[in-house]
């Protein structure tokens, strides 16, 4: 079995999969900013793609992960790993193979999704209750795809509580997962702070690379998370959308001020997607999150929230903006 430790010979920094948030456009913008600030993401993980009773066709992958058309990388060269969610061994394995044939450089398996519809169909975090199923899914996909393609897993600490952590870790390890990402909360914790970084530490004894995730909003959090979780490898989620310079700030203290961020917001708004109506909503979603990271975003938000067209929003964005009091 191929060993992927060499990918971890420096602390890796990953952009988290976030369905409806880190879509291909947002991935492109955030990975570009990181690249321009001198600390590119090592990779990003796609939003989950759900696999049910049928193997997914190629076009589903190309729609969700259009980066597959450009060597599996964003414009700035950041690899995108394809994340699958499901519990059907055959269709998961066949779908993983399709993704690999399309050029996916790695497959990640989602065992963290808290969504009711997904959990009711025995997908996502509910599988943490049954480590033997986790094992079966990971090993089935692992055995189906070529050994040089990493197959990783992303989990939470448990479903209702953390009592099955040990069994979950053993299942992931014995299924030969290439590495493991741990979101330091249970499904029941949802997205409520805190994240229990110290609970990640026992997973580092498994002997496979462990990536810590959850509630990293600034460089201090990154430092504490790495210390408490006993792993230097971090995945950044909402914090990376709120402060797109977070990765650079963790790396060497670099920041991107509001004026510096404006061109990237304009690039977002100028995207030539077919879904121009959706673009306005998605930009508003991003701006709403930016209000937590930039005081200037708050003043802009007061204006933009009433605007309906992309042109009006672009016009507002291009006006000089001052930090709100
Ligand atoms: C809107 C949203 C969508 C998410 N979608 C996914 C997903 O598709 N796959 C996944 O593994 N995790 C998903 N997550 C979880 C994140 O990857 C991450 O584990 C979580 O947000 C904790 O990190 P953070 O506190 O840094 O945001 C999602 C989180 C959010 C907020």
Folded structure, characterized:
With 325 residues, the chain is an alpha/beta fold. The protein folds into two domains: 5-252, Alpha-Beta Barrel (TIM Barrel); 258-318, Bacteriocin As-48, Chain A (Up-down Bundle). The protein is 40% helix and 13% strand. The protein contains 13 helices and nine strands. It has helices at 24-36, 58-64, 89-101, 116-120, 131-144, 165-174, 219-229, 238-242, 246-252, 258-269, 276-290, 295-304, 310-318, and strands at residues 13-15, 43-45, 49-50, 80-85, 107-111, 151-158, 180-186, 210-213, 233-236. It has an eight-stranded parallel β-barrel, surrounded by five helices. Strand 4, helix 3 and strand 5 (107-111) form a beta-alpha-beta unit. Helix 1 (24-36) packs antiparallel against helix 10. Bound molecules: flavin mononucleotide. Residues 16-21, 47-48, 83, 110, 112-113, 154, 183, 191, 213-216, 236-239 line the site of flavin mononucleotide.
């Amino acid at each position: 079995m191929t060993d992927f430790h060499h990918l971890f010979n420096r602390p890796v920094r990953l952009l988290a999969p976030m369905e409806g948030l880190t879509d291909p456009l947002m991935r492109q913008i955030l990975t570009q900013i990181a690249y321009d600030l001198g600390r590119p993401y090592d990779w990003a993980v796609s939003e989950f793609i759900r696999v049910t009773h049928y193997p997914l066709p190629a076009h589903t992958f190309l729609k969700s992960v259009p980066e597959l058309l450009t060597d599996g990388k964003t414009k700035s060269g950041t690899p995108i790993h394809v994340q699958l969610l499901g519990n059907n061994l055959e269709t998961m394995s066949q779908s993983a193979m399709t993704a690999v044939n399309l050029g996916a450089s790695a497959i990640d398996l989602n065992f963290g999704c808290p969504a009711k519809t997904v959990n009711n169909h025995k997908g996502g975090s509910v599988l943490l209750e049954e480590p033997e199923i986790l094992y079966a899914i990971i090993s089935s996909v692992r055995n189906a795809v070529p050994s040089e393609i990493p197959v990783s897993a992303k989990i939470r600490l448990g479903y209702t509580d953390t009592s099955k952590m040990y069994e979950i870790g053993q299942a992931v390890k014995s299924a030969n997962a290439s590495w493991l990402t741990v979101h330091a909360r249970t499904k029941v914790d949802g997205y409520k702070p805190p994240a229990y970084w110290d609970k990640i530490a026992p997973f580092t004894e498994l002997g496979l690379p462990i990536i810590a995730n959850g509630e990293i909003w600034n460089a201090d959090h990154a430092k504490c998370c790495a210390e408490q979780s006993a792993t230097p490898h971090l995945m950044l989620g909402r914090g990376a959308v709120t402060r797109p310079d977070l990765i650079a700030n963790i790396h060497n203290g670099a920041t991107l001020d509001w004026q510096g961020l404006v061109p990237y917001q304009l690039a977002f708004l100028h995207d030539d997607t077919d879904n121009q109506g959706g673009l306005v909503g998605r930009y508003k979603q991003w701006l709403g999150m930016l209000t937590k990271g930039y005081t200037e975003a708050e003043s802009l938000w007061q204006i933009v929230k009433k605007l309906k067209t992309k042109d009006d929003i672009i016009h507002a964005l291009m006006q000089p903006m001052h930090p709100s009091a």
